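Structure request: 3-methyl-2-oxobutanoate hydroxymethyltransferase, Dispira parvispora.
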Amino acid sequence: MATAALVRRVNLLSSTRQKVKTPSTLPSTVFARLYSVHPGEPPGPSNPSASQHTERKKVTIQTIHSRYRKKIPITMLTAYDYPTAQTADRAETDIILVGDSLAMVALGYSSTAKLTVDEMIHHCKAVSRGCDKAFKLADMTTGSYQISPEQALTNGFRIITEGSMEALKLEGGEEIAETVHRMTQAGIPIMGHIGLTPQHENALGGFRVQGKSAKKAEKILKDALALQEAGCFGIVIECVPSPVAETITSLLRIPTIGIGAGPHTSGQVLVGQDMLGIFDRFVPKFCKQYAHLGNNIIGAYREYNREVRESIFPDANQHTYPMSSEKELEEWLSIAAKYQK
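Returned structure:
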């Protein structure tokens, strides 16, 4: 009885195989990627066909400063993993930031303060592998640079060398100017971060707009001037009134990157998950959502679950691989018949 059942299976599979192309008749591109765990080769010298646009030059600090002088707005986006970095890079983003925001939007922590240096390095490595042309910038984590310049240098060089980053971003103003100076003198490019500094959320009373009074705005200006003097090649200005950011930008000789700081900074940065509509725990007022991928992803997952449960996926004709020949199939079924009890 078992043998008869196998024979029926042979006939069924053989008739099905008549409807399916064999590997030799399929285009070679179909088998360019056999497994989802093996990502396709990114565009580059070894795979020029993967990129449909003109090859752009590597973005450097000199590139950023050139665009600043020419008044060409600078773009920055966050990325925390290989595929996100790769897509942001292919979209010709100027700067890719491995922000400590990954603590909340990628790792599920309640605040950025919980992120460690080792975790930051882990994500920097992934982003670096996916980033070919964009400038690679990473946040220094809470507590990794505030104790002393020596501590900052030790952790900073770890992130730069182990994480393959090109520059670091530090939050703070006049109080970290000496540390910034020491790091830039040691050869680590530094971008400052003033206004709302999320690593100080407890001291600031939460995520609140900064510089709403003239005196507080002056403090932010002094922070910016101190960081410029210390050697920063640029400064992020977060969550301050637009007139404050505009004035500070006009008084500096280095580019400013705004986030919730109005349209008059030298460039803009957004958290990738926020602008893509993936992270829905909290969307800041200043963030424009260019997509709503979270709902699309949930819908795709639900459709997959439904099709698996209803035996729709995988389709026998479309999503499966044949044996090399009918002869091999018949031989295999004969072998399997011996194991039937």
